Amino acid sequence: MKTKQTQKTWKSTSVRNLYWRNNSEGETCYAARVSRGGRPRFLNLETSDKKVAQRKLYAAIDKEVAQPKKKARTMPRVEDYLRETRETLKLANLRSSTLRTYKDNFGQLLRKAPKQFLRLKIDKVTGDDLTNWLETVFCAGNLCEGKGYSFDAVRQQWVVLTLMFDRAIKEGLTGSKPQFKLSHKAMLGRQLEWKSQRGKPARKPIPAGSQFEELVADIRNHEGQFPDKQQRVANWVMFLGASGLRIGEVQKLKWSHVNLKLNLLDLQGVRLKNPNMVRDHINLNPIAKGALLRIWNRAETRVPVRDKQGEIRLDLKGAVITRLLKRDLGALKQDDYVMPVKDGREALKASCERLGFPSFSPHSLRHFFITCSLQNGHDIITVAGQVGHSDASVTAKRYAHLIEDHSAKLAATWTTDPDE
């Protein structure tokens, strides 16, 4: 006896809209044929009995027809859908400035994204397409020549793409977002590689020892409109360069963390990264202590701003809003912030322009501290603990060129005689 073969296509029966075929087990199964939008669909009636199938046939058709018809829509291209999404953005819970930023990023994508990417259908976009987009807008020579975007700008554009894909998923145009992830370290590494290939400095400029002293003196002695502000910024720059702390850690520092008698800083609750893996206490060198003594003698601080109910006000990012306060000499409190500086970046940048130095950032002063420490022969484990690296290998990878120089110096001066 011959067994029934599996049959993929549906075949009609003598009953209208009733079709049959053989399944993988050789059994006959029946389905109802319905047509919506010009495209036929087959609804499995889950029975192998023809009489039972006839009874289920019209109930299945009526149920399918009763469903609301989906609005037919051709699959849009990325370029058209970007424009449409930008125009339909609403204020909702977004600030007006955030909304403007999103719309600007939509415009940047439309102007700078590869043409092949813009002409793709929404449901055809893959992670490789987004990688090619990243290659084009992030660098490919453009960023190094001042024509591309920084990583933060590209990350904002990726947020905009995410908004576009969210809308496409809601409208049923695509099933999911393409798998794609922006790697900050990988992108910055490639940026440095592209810059070095074009003969440009691969790393951010770091001040030399003499440049650091000139910066502090220039800021302190500059005859500006606000001389008190110049003194505050000079102390801030001096402390950043002599302590190696991150700018966010310095802003959180309070006088309760400072022990000038023992030359110690208690950084518990201040460290921004890996707080459970780094040292809580660090020693103050004479320059850092001198900067703190200057600040203490000026009796200036920043205190939290409170509302009418007495609660501390926060900005949109969740940070505490502070204001400058000058206390009586020696009247600083333990809860007062150490650094009364709010806009030191501009003063530092202006000083670099006056002296003809490269544009140093506050984070460059942290690199300056680590560089000086390693060049002066301090061991890498101590330096890593001072600046808050979770492991000495982090410091070793970042400052490998300095370690090699120090190794060569060690080899040239090593001797078995301790008196030499």
How would you briefly describe this protein structure?
With 420 residues, the chain is α+β, with helices and mostly antiparallel strands.
How large a portion of the residues is in β-strands, by DSSP E? 5-15%
Annotation field: number of helices: 16
Order of helices and strands: EEEEHHHHHHHHHHEEEHEEHHHHH
Task: Record the strand order, biggest sheet.
Answer: 1-2-3-4
Number of strands: 9
What is the overall shape?
Answer: elongated
- Structural class by helix and strand composition: alpha+beta
Q: Tell me the radius of gyration.
A: 33 Å
The residue-averaged pLDDT reads 76
What about the largest sheet?
4 strands, antiparallel
- Name the poorly predicted regions: 1-6, 140-146
Q: In percent, how helical is the residue content?
A: 40-55%
C-alpha end-to-end distance:
104 Å
Describe this protein's structure.
There is one protein chain. The chain is of the alpha+beta class and 420 residues long. The protein is built from 16 helices and nine strands. Helix 8 (209-221) packs antiparallel against helix 9, helix 8 crosses helix 12 (344-355) and helix 9 packs antiparallel against helix 11. The longest helix is centred in the middle third of the chain and has 20 residues, at 151-170.
List the helices and strands and how they pair.
Elements: E1 11-12, E2 18-22, E3 28-36, E4 39-44, H1 50-66, H2 78-87, H3 96-112, H4 115-118, H5 127-138, H6 151-170, H7 184-197, H8 209-221, H9 227-243, H10 247-252, E5 258-259, E6 264-266, E7 281-283, H11 286-298, E8 300-304, E9 322-326, H12 344-355, H13 362-375, H14 380-387, H15 392-398, H16 400-413
Antiparallel strand pairs: 1-2, 2-3, 3-4, 5-6, 6-7, 8-9
Helix pairs in contact: 2-3, 3-6, 8-9, 8-12, 9-11, 9-13, 13-14, 14-15
